[in-house]
C-alpha cells in the first residue's frame, strides 16, 4: 500500500476503487478457511470474496449499516467529503479521525471492515503528510485500547439528538467524541515510542538484556560475557563501529574480544557486510521484547 502511494502521487485514496483494493490485497493472502463467515440470520456459511462489496443486509451489534444497493452512493459521498486534497491545515487531522468512523459505519464488506478502516487511516495519514516514518502506527494504539475503541465507535454510531446536534442523521457530538479519542490515541503512541526510543533508556535496557544473558537467565540462550554490552551500546550510539574499536571498548584481550564479537554477529545482535567491515546495530526478533518492552499488545506475536 505504501509503495503504491509513493508511486502514484495522484491516487484517490477515498475512492471506492482504493478501498476495495485495500480489502482485496489483504484478504487474498488469507487462507480460505479464515474467510468463511456465518450468514446473517442463519447458520449457513458464506465465503467472503476479497475486495467485493457486500450484497446483503447485515447487522453489527446494534448498528444497521446501509442497504447494499445504497453502498455506491454512500462511498461516493464519503469520497467527496474526505478527499484530502480538498482539505487544508488542521481539517486534515480531523478528517483522518472522522473518515475512520464513517468508513467503519458504511461497513462496505461482509467482513474485515475494521482492518480495512485501520489500513485506510494509515494511508490517509501518509497522503495527508502526517508521517510516522514507520515509528508508530494508529493500528497498534487502537488494538491496545480495543474496548475503548469499540465503545467510541458505537457512540459515533448514535443518531442525531435534537436540534443542537447539527443536521445530519448521525450525532455530531458522538463523532466529535470519537475524533477526540482517535487523536488522543495518536498522541499516546507518539509519546510511547518517543520514550522507547530515548537513547538513555534504550541503553539501559540493552545493558539489562546482557546482564540476563551473562547470568544464563534466558532459557534456550547461551551465556554472553558482560563486556558485550559495551560493544552493543557503542554501536547503538554511533551507528557503526570498526572491529578494532569494538574489541578495544570491551577491555578484554584480543582473542577473548574477538570471540565476543563473533558471538554477537552469530546471533545477529550486530551485523556487518564482510568479516572486515564495521559492525552495525541490529535488532533481531528475539530481543525486541527486551529492548522495547510493551511494544506489541499481548498475544500479537
Alpha-carbon distance between the two ends: 22 Å
CATH architecture of the largest domain: Orthogonal Bundle
- Oligomer kind: single chain
Low-confidence stretches: none
Nearest-integer average pLDDT: 90
Helix content: 40-55%
Sheet having the most strands: 3 strands, antiparallel
Topology-level CATH name of the largest domain: Fic-like fold
| Secondary-structure-derived class | mainly alpha
> Gyration radius, to the nearest Å?
25 Å
Q: Helices and strands, in N-to-C order?
A: HHEEHHHHHHHHEHHEEH
Task: List the strand order in the largest sheet.
Answer: 3-5-4
β-strand number: 5
Q: What's the shape?
A: elongated
CATH-assigned homologous superfamily of the largest domain: Fido-like domain
Strand content: under 5%
Protein name: Fic family protein
Domain Fido: 14-184
Q: What can be said about this structure in brief?
A:
Pfam families: Fic. The protein is mostly helical and 301 residues long. It contains 13 helices and 5 strands.
Verbal overview:
With 301 residues, this protein is mainly α. It folds into three domains: 1-89 and 106-128, Fic-like fold (Orthogonal Bundle), CATH 1.10.3290.10; 132-195; 199-291, Arc Repressor Mutant, subunit A (Orthogonal Bundle), CATH 1.10.10.10. It has helices spanning 2-7, 16-27, 71-82, 90-106, 113-127, 138-144, 146-156, 172-196, 199-214, 228-238, 243-250, 254-266, 288-291; strands at residues 36-38, 45-47, 240-241, 270-271, 279-281. It has a three-stranded antiparallel beta sheet. The protein has a two-stranded antiparallel sheet with strand order 1-2. The longest helix is centred in the middle third of the chain and has 25 residues, at 172-196. The radius of gyration is 25 Å and the shape is elongated.
Amino acid at each position: 500500500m505504501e509503495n503504491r502511494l509513493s508511486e502514484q502521487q495522484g491516487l484517490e485514496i477515498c475512492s471506492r476503487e482504493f478501498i476495495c483494493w485495500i480489502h482485496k490485497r489483504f484478504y487474498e493472502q488469507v487462507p480460505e478457511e479464515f474467510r468463511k463467515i456465518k450468514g446473517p440470520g442463519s447458520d449457513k456459511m458464506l465465503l467472503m470474496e476479497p475486495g467485493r462489496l457486500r450484497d446483503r443486509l447485515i447487522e453489527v451489534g446494534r448498528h444497521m449499516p446501509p442497504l447494499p444497493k445504497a453502498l455506491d452512493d454512500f462511498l461516493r459521498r464519503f469520497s467527496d467529503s474526505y478527499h484530502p486534497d480538498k482539505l487544508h491545515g488542521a481539517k486534515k487531522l480531523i478528517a483522518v479521525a472522522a473518515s475512520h468512523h464513517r468508513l467503519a459505519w458504511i461497513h462496505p464488506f461482509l467482513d474485515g471492515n475494521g482492518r480495512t478502516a485501520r489500513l485506510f487511516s494509515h494511508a490517509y495519514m501518509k497522503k495527508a503528510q502526517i508521517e510516522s516514518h514507520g515509528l508508530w502506527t494508529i493500528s497498534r494504539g487502537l488494538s491496545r485500547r480495543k474496548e475503548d475503541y469499540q465503545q467510541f465507535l458505537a457512540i459515533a454510531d448514535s443518531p442525531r439528538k435534537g436540534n443542537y446536534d447539527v443536521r445530519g442523521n448521525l450525532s455530531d457530538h458522538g463523532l466529535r467524541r470519537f475524533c477526540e479519542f482517535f487523536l488522543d490515541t495518536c498522541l499516546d503512541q507518539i509519546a510511547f515510542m518517543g520514550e522507547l526510543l530515548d537513547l538513555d533508556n534504550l541503553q539501559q535496557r540493552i545493558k539489562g538484556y546482557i546482564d540476563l544473558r551473562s547470568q544464563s537467565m534466558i532459557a534456550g540462550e547461551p551465556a554472553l560475557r558482560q563486556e558485550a554490552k559495551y560493544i552493543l551500546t557503542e554501536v547503538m550510539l554511533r551507528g557503526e563501529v570498526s572491529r578494532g574499536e569494538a574489541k578495544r571498548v570491551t577491555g578484554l584481550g584480543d582473542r577473548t574480544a574477538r570471540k565476543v564479537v563473533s558471538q554477537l554477529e552469530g546471533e545477529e545482535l550486530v551485523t556487518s557486510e564482510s568479516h572486515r567491515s564495521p559492525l552495525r546495530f541490529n535488532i533481531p526478533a528475539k530481543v525486541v521484547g527486551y529492548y522495547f518492552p510493551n511494544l506489541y499488545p499481548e498475544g500479537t506475536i
